[in-house]
Design goal:
This protein has a domain at about 140-230. The protein is about 75% helix and about 5% strand. Helix 5 (about 170-180) crosses helix 6. With about 300 residues, it is an all-alpha fold.
Length: about 300
């Protein structure tokens, strides 16, 4: 009985060791299979990347080849067009050069005008409001009266009336003249040399500017009146000239109709003017003068 029991235990032990060895063999086989599977996966991943790279490279090469072929066709057709339309191509190039030149000139003019506007703005000249040029005429007689002070200063007027002396000193008027009347432009004189103060209390600047503006406006009106007067004089001269030419033509026409009296005493044409012999020489000189005036006037008209 114990002998059978020992035999069964040894058999069980052998079976257990055999089972363990089988388990180890299975485990090693599984690990080997997993290792092979991992290696196969790595190889498959590498092959996939290489395949993708090969496909991408082939597609890129195909695209580049298509682009090169397209560029070659474009250049070929362009060269054909250039060779067949040389005149149009040359005209296009010339027009392009002209447009570039005109654009450069316009750009230069724009920046010059912009610079001029900036300079004008810097010096206080506003270009937003239009500027008008006006001509002002000042009479020397009025300037002389201002300079001497006659009819303005009582001191100077009394001196002229009593002693006929125009050089009498008039200190007050001289100061007024120097500060307000004599300047020809709207300059500022903010300092009073006598009182050693600014002259704003005496309103010299305001008076000077007001007088300057008034004289300028009067000068503009005087210039306008002189222009109108010259226009009227021109109209009058032209009217007289027209009447003179008309009368001169009539006189020359009359001179063409005069004749001496015939021996028979009868006139052949009623439109002819018979002049006695005693007045013939004077009439000939008169008609020469009329023709000379007419010819000279025609020559002057052609010259003018």
């Amino acid at each position: 009985m114990f002998g059978k029991l020992g035999t069964s235990l040894s058999a069980i032990t052998k079976s257990l060791s055999a089972a363990k060895s089988l388990d180890l063999a299975d485990q090693r086989e599984k690990e080997h299979e997993e290792f092979i599977a991992r290696q196969a996966m790595i190889v498959s991943n590498k092959s996939l990347v290489s395949k993708i790279w090969e496909i991408t490279l082939s597609v890129s090469i195909s695209i580049v080849e298509e682009i090169v072929i397209l560029i070659r066709h474009i250049l070929k057709h362009s060269w054909i067009l250039l060779t067949t339309n040389k005149g149009l191509v040359l005209l296009t190039i010339v027009l392009g050069v002209i447009n570039i030149g005109l654009a450069g000139i316009s750009t230069k003019s724009y920046w010059m005008e912009r610079h001029a506007e900036q300079v004008a703005t810097k010096y206080g000249i506003s270009l937003e409001t239009p500027l008008y040029m006006q001509r002002s005429i000042l009479l020397t007689d009025v300037d002389n009266l201002i300079h001497t002070g006659i009819n303005y200063s009582a001191e100077v007027t009394n001196s002229v009336n009593v002693t006929n002396d125009t050089t009498a000193p008039a200190l007050c008027y001289n100061k007024f003249k120097d500060l307000t009347l004599m300047p020809t432009g709207p300059e500022d004189y903010p300092y009073d040399p006598l009182f050693n103060t600014e002259s704003e209390s005496f309103s010299s600047n305001a008076i000077r500017n007001r007088i300057f503006e008034l004289r300028s406006q009067i000068g503009v009106q005087r210039n306008w009146l002189m222009v109108e007067l010259r226009t009227i004089n021109k109209v009058e001269t032209d009217l007289i000239m027209a009447e003179w030419r008309s009368w001169l033509y009539d006189e020359v026409a009359r001179c063409g109709k005069v004749r001496r009296p015939s021996s028979s005493g009868s006139a052949n044409d009623t439109s002819e003017i018979v002049v006695p012999n005693d007045r013939w020489d004077a009439l000939v000189e008169y008609c020469k003068s009329c023709r000379l005036e007419l010819d000279s006037g025609i020559e002057l008209d052609h010259v003018v």
